[in-house]
Amino acid sequence: MKETEQKAIRWRRENLSKEELAAAVIDALRWEYPGAACTLDYNQAWKLLVSVRLAAQCTDARVNVVVEDLYARFPDVHSLACADVDEIEKIVKPCGLGHSKARDISACMKMLESQYGGCVPDDFDELLKLPGVGRKSANLIMGDVFGKPAIVTDTHCIRLVNRMGLVDGIKEPKKVEMALWKIVPPEEGSDFCHRLVYHGRDVCTARTKPYCDRCCVSDLCAKNGVQE
Ligand code: SF4
Fold first, then answer.
1. Alpha helices in the chain, H assignment, sequence order
2. In terms of domains, do 27 and 118 share one?
3. Are both 190 and 167 inside the same structural domain?
4. Distance, CA 110 to ligand 1 centroid (Å)?
5. Cα-based distances in Å from 74 to 47, 83, 107, 116, 218
6. Å from CA of 181 to ligand 1 middle
7. Residue 220 maps to a domain
8. What is the reported pTM?
9. How do residues 121-177 score in pLDDT, each as one tens digit?
10. Residue 85: which domain range?
């Protein structure tokens, strides 16, 4: 790219407000990944609760395989709530952290049964009361299951919004979430975060140098071509 073009791009980027930058990035990602969605398989809300717990430090692809065995053995909230924790652990072990995940899933299903009539609550603060459910999981449930505003600050989201300059040097998930709420339109948040996951896996990668030369937001990104 010629130096004059680079200067023009930098000038444009530096003169955008954070809201304008967010809007432009959202547009570009929507165009690039029109069908982006959650990559955890589920057909009922409680299953997404289980999967999102299993997904900690594990790939979504592996979780999607493991839950098939789990649901073959325990097909509903009641059977999982009654299940022996050791038996759950044996099945979910391939996802790592087997004991704590099995314990949380068991406690979460018990609480769903005893306090919510076996249903997943559609309230963010109620979701946070469930064992093993943090802000990231609660936001995912709110956005994907209930179609409500959500910002899911997973590792891809945090890395990418920092690189792009949507936030400045913020790594703590809750702080990133709060910063994004200020600049991302609420109705865009859930899809935007799913698209960040796609982009983070394919282009703006963590383990290799990001592929800025084939990035759809390269003319907007603060880190384009800059070594970290
Ligand atoms: S330009 Fe590079 S650093 Fe910026 S979002 Fe794209 S791939 Fe990531």
1. 3-14, 18-32, 45-54, 60-73, 77-82, 85-92, 98-116, 124-128, 135-144, 155-164, 173-183, 189-202
2. no
3. yes
4. 43
5. 11, 8, 15, 19, 46
6. 22
7. no
8. 0.91
9. 999 999 999 999 999 999 999 999 999 999 999 999 999 999 999 999 999 999 999
10. 45-144
Q: Which of 144, 171, 188 delimits the end of a domain?
A: 144
- Mean pLDDT along residues 100-112: 98
Q: What is the pLDDT of residues 8-44, one digit of tens each?
A: 777 777 788 999 999 999 999 999 999 989 999 999 9
Looking at the structure, do residues 138 and 50 belong to the same domain, yes or no? Answer: yes
222 occurs within a structural domain = no
Residue 189 has pLDDT above 70, yes or no: yes
Same domain, 63 and 130: yes
212 lines ligand 1 (CB under 6 A): yes
